[in-house]
TrEMBL record:
It comes from the Eukaryota. This is poly(A)-specific ribonuclease. PROSITE patterns: LRR. Its EC number is 3.1.13.4. Belongs to the CCR4/nocturin family. Residues 1-39, 560-594 are annotated as: Disordered. Residues 564-594 have a biased composition (Low complexity). Keywords: Cytoplasm, Exonuclease, Hydrolase, Leucine-rich repeat, Magnesium, Metal-binding, Nuclease, Nucleus, Repeat, RNA-binding, Transcription, Transcription regulation.
Length: 594
């Protein structure tokens, strides 16, 4: 047996098993290095050993005409490379699936007649060498090895279908796709997500209780095997996924639905007609690139959609926020605004809604009741452009303030509203912000302000542009927006809203305006144990139609303006909610920080 030693002084090699117990068979364990020039090893000097240096080894080679492998080997779960080639192995034990960190497995030139299904659990494998064995088939579970780049199967009496696929250009990928698509998937529906109560409704004054759902549905053109290699082709197909998405929307039956990544054609020919049957009306806007495309290409461009239950709300006006156009209009003095922000075609979409009389409990509000401003947005995705994400969000909040100011013009009894935008509308902001909770984007939304020197700006030349759109434009050290917002979900409640193999985290949010909106409850996360038990390494999945999970919140909205109302809900303790109400007339007096 040869153990490759990286020469690293880190601890971790203390669990080294006896070489005589690992490989069992004819011949002795060999201490000589492999003849393969790609594999070299070093041996710790006597001086280093005497000095107490400890090595960490993650690669192992077993040689010596070995016929069986001891179960002890599979306790070495830290292994990344395992070489058992050129032996006399007739089988690979099912315990191989415990070596979840393996990146290279070489079992070529043995006498293997079959492979266990558990080989499909080695999802980090990049090289799997099985040449010159007696394999007559491959387990369909091997299709789950979506990181595999090199598969050696020559010299095995495999079916012609396997050999032919493997011989094609990109043969490894094609063979894995065939195996995964052929793998029977048991129908195991995820368990219901728990409903988490947060507060009790107000009984002393008029209030509207409604639910809002936010969901990035993953549009068809992004749902590819290149992006989601762990998902079967048939489960990525839009016709399959859209049935499950619609089933989710109908199951949760939210009063307001905010969707991202909705293709133009799917909005008009699927979502809108289907949801109209359930009592919804909807609005939609495609990303800005659609304006430059032909009619046939435009229908595949994705965008944002808002649906609202017509029994509770009437549409007053819809507003499109195009970040590239705003960047162009505000680019004076900033090449970065032109070169970095204007080139991204993300959008926001807002619906100004009037609450119908029938939707109020405890009587009908007297006098002026601010309309509900519902906004959904899909912010730029690239982590390298954190400055663009933040600038887009600041432009969005500026536009929402202008919409709020415009909303009171010409409306009956609107003169009784205060001067602050928070008095003119009740803002509900939902979307895929592609930003983690600790990012500048979420800090800005949650606290109503952000330092002009925040690292997310990358010291780029945005200052003069951003001062012009800041709510308190006279401040030179920070930028502000006009609303008091809080996010309904926190990391303690929902550890991830986006769930892929490479990334799991919170990037989707529902923000509500304080103090006139109070969360009464929200939909909890999917049971993580179910994900583990069913080996769901990422979404989409045959039982999960998108790479995002929908967020659902029940909100209570009171009628009063922000300057004169108090939060009278019987609030339970929650890290996501503010437990006190602070009257405010502008964001400059807001000191709420999360």
């Amino acid at each position: 047996m040869t153990i490759k030693d990286s020469g690293n002084a880190a601890s971790g090699g203390s669990a080294t098993p006896s070489p005589n117990n690992i490989g069992q068979g004819l011949g002795q364990s060999s201490g000589a290095g492999s003849s393969n020039p790609k594999r070299t090893h070093t041996i710790m000097s006597a001086e280093d050993a005497a000095a107490g240096k400890r090595s960490f080894w993650a690669e192992m080679e077993l040689t010596g005409n070995i016929r069986n492998i001891s179960p002890q080997l599979f306790d070495l779960t830290h292994l990344t490379h395992l070489y058992v080639n050129d032996n006399s192995l007739t089988k690979v034990p099912s315990e191989i699936g415990k070596l979840v960190n393996l990146q290279v497995l070489d079992a070529s030139n043995n006498k293997l007649r079959s492979l266990p299904a558990e080989v499909g659990d080695l999802i980090r494998l990049r090289e799997l060498l099985l040449a010159n064995n007696y394999l007559r088939t491959l387990p369909f579970e091997m299709g789950r090895l979506f990181n595999l780049q090199l598969l050696g199967i020559k010299g095995n009496p495999l079916p012609q279908e396997f050999s032919s696929l493997h011989a094609e250009v990109n043969g490894t990928s094609k063979l894995l796709t065939f195996l995964l698509d052929s793998l029977p998937v048991p129908t195991v529906e995820p368990p219901p997500r728990a409903w988490l109560p947060l507060a009790t409704p107000t009984r002393s004054k008029p209030a509207c209780i409604f639910t809002v759902l936010c969901y990035n549905v993953l549009c068809d053109k992004y749902a590819t095997r290149q992006m989601y290699g762990y998902c079967p082709t048939w489960a990525l197909d839009w016709m399959y996924r859209r049935k499950a998405i619609l089933q989710e929307l109908r199951h949760y039956s939210a009063d307001i639905i905010s969707l991202q990544e909705v293709e133009t054609d799917q909005f008009y020919n699927f979502f809108l007609p289907e949801l109209q049957q359930d009592g919804y009306a909807g609005i939609f806007a495609a990303k800005s690139r659609a304006k430059t495309m032909s009619e046939s290409d435009r229908k595949f461009v994705d965008g944002c959609a808002i649906f609202y239950r017509t029994a509770k709300f009437n549409l007053i006006k819809e507003h499109l926020v195009e970040f590239n156009q705003l960047a162009m209009a505000n680019a004076e003095g900033s090449d970065d605004m032109l070169n970095r922000v204007m080139t991204k075609d993300n959008i926001g979409l807002a619906a100004l809604l009037e609450t119908r009389m029938e939707a109020w409990d405890n009587g009908v509000p007297h006098g002026y009741s601010p309309p509900l401003l519902v906004c959904t947005a899909h912010i730029h995705w690239d982590p390298e452009f954190c400055d663009v994400k933040l600038v887009q969000t600041m432009m969005l909040m500026h536009e929402l303030r202008l919409i709020a100011d415009e909303s009171s013009t010409g409306r009956p009894n609107a003169s009784s509203a205060g001067k602050s935008p928070t008095d003119k509308v009740h803002l509900l902001l939902c979307g895929d912000f592609n930003s983690l909770p600790e990012s500048g984007v979420i800090e800005f939304l949650n606290t109503s302000r952000i330092s002009a020197k925040h690292p997310d700006f990358k010291d780029l030349g945005y200052k003069s542009c951003l001062q012009r759109i800041s709510y308190n434009s006279d401040r030179t050290t920070e930028y502000t927006h006009a609303f008091r917002l809080s996010t309904a979900y926190s990391a303690e409640v929902m550890p991830f809203t986006n769930y892929t193999f490479d990334f799991k985290g919170i990037i989707d949010y529902i923000f509500y305006q304080k103090p006139n909106m109070t969360p009464l409850g929200l939909l909890g996360p999917l049971d993580p144990q179910w994900l583990v038990e069913n080996k769901v390494v990422g979404a989409p999945h045959p039982s999960i139609p998108s790479d995002h999970f929908p967020l659902l919140v029940e909100l209570e909205m009171t009628a009063g303006s922000g300057s004169g109302s108090s939060n009278s809900g019987n609030q339970q303790s929650s890290s996501t909610l503010s437990t006190t109400s602070v009257s405010t007339t502008s964001s400059s007096s807001t000191s709420s920080r999360r």
